[in-house]
Amino acid sequence: THLGSEGADVFSAMVARALADAVPALRRQLLP
Q1: pTM tops 0.85, yes or no
Q2: Rg of the chain over CA atoms, in angstroms?
Q3: Element (DSSP H or E) covering residue 16
């Protein structure tokens, strides 16, 4: 992405946390 690998890691972690909050059933698959 245009963010580079570090920026992509940060952004994907933010999205995973937001999705886990929105859909708790997916939490185990999204977060370590």
Answers
A1: no
A2: 11
A3: helix 4-22
Whether 21 and 28 have beta carbons less than 8 Å apart is answered as: no
Q: What are the structure tokens assigned to 28, written together?
A: 């185990």
Contacts by 19-27, CB closer than 8 A, 24 or more apart: none
Taking only the tens place, the pLDDT of each residue in 1-32 is 578 999 999 999 999 999 999 999 999 998 87
Rounded Cα gap, residues 8 and 4, in angstroms:
6
For the chain, the maximum distance between any two Cα atoms, rounded to a whole number of angstroms, is 31
Which amino acid is present at 29? Q
